[in-house]
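Predict the assembly for these two chains.
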Amino acid sequence: MTHASDKLRLQRQRGAFGHRVREHRLSAGLSQEELAEAAGIHRTYVSSLERGQRNVSLDNIIALARALKVDAAQLLEGI
Amino acid sequence: MTHASDKLRLQRQRGAFGHRVREHRLSAGLSQEELAEAAGIHRTYVSSLERGQRNVSLDNIIALARALKVDAAQLLEGI
């Protein structure tokens, strides 16, 4: 797989993850600020990860899931 | 939650993830070296993440899942 297609695949995966977090956040009725506070993550980080611009760590994936009251696995479904 | 209990929780989570990767690797009949190569990750990184010593990134979680031929969500089930 070429470097370019690799990069595209990674961007698509991060975008899918960001979209999933946003979906759960909205259905939980939380603002980005409220999610960030509950997860112990900076608000601007939540905003950029929802836009698919972050290679989020395991610790933060689990902190986000806890704050959204979903299983961490649910944030990766179908990705 | 105190800093110490936070640290313990993170270690427990990383350990559970490492254990899950190891389980899938063994049932796929792969050595750490073979998994590392298939996932495009260094062998020593696979060894330390299986021991729960790594805060693995989203990109690497997905690369590991692809190499193990499982969904990324399966690597986070129950964590």
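Chain A touches chain B through 21 residues (CB under 8 Å). The mean pLDDT of chain A is 94.
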